[in-house]
Amino acid sequence: MTETTARPTLEAVAARAGVSRATASRVVNGGDGVREPLVERVRRAVDELGYVPNQAARSLVTKRHDAIAVVIAEPETRVFADPFFALQLRGISKELTVHDSQLVLLLTEGRDDHARVGRYLAGGHVDGALVFSLHLDDALPGLIRGAGVPTVFGGRPGWSDGTPGPVYVDSDNRGGAREAVRHLVGLGRTRIAHIAGALDQTSAVDRLDGFRDVMADADPRMVVESDFTPAGGERAMRELLDRCPDLDGVFAANDLTAAGALRVLRERGRRVPEDVAVIGFDDMLPVAEQTDPPLTTIRQDIEEMGRLMARLLLRRLDRSTTGLADADTPAAVVLPTTLVRRASA
Length: 345
Fold this sequence. Notes:
Shape: elongated
Distance between the termini: 66 Å
Strand content: 15-25%
């Protein structure tokens, strides 16, 4: 047998604070119009009694659920295998925790899941949505817009349907790619290849454009599309070596792709960086510092991207609740990138 202790009630909080139940309710549930000395007494009573507010009652007052959906347009096998997503989720989680909001993770295994996500968002379970890893033909933006949920996107949106520009956070993918390729050129490399990411995503398109900004006259055979995975990097590197065995530099669209490329170069007896210099993109430390040799890469602050996405969304929600204008909330934030030199280039 275990003895259970009754949970403290709002009435008990009011009695401890010496205020009416209505006053205690306004303080606990975020209402206005209570003098500061009374607010402090109620908060002290909450702490002393260990009172936990009823979320349903709180939502009636604040019109908020204190829950944010995070929608990742990738299957769970990809999400849990790629440290990029872990870093972005960590940034989001840290920011939501500071504001006492819950993270609700929604993954899409395929197109059949899109309607499910749309129904959930339209059902009034969350205050807003953070959405990333979208593909250019993705139906999710339309479903989310139809659900009427405030949304911030991770990555530059790649659609245009005549509606006002979406709010998003991204890194300077094109500028970072240019810096990577210029570094290879500065090392004296003249046969530089690019292993692109999945070109139905704007980050991959922007990085390919950055490569072409520097290598405008590059042989088209020196570009191979991959999928941001180590296995994709291996396949692309084999194809490049078969096409262009004299290549002496590789810019890979992300660190995982570069890791796969390094394995193939080692198998083929190519020394890095003596024979082939390799640069990645992301600077995910669990990957970049553990490749052989350690990877030179373009750093983007993935965790900060997640934090900023959450911060922008919460700011929009706060201003919507108070009825204030949204003019000082930026529509887009693009974070800078930097070159991190290690042994591969």
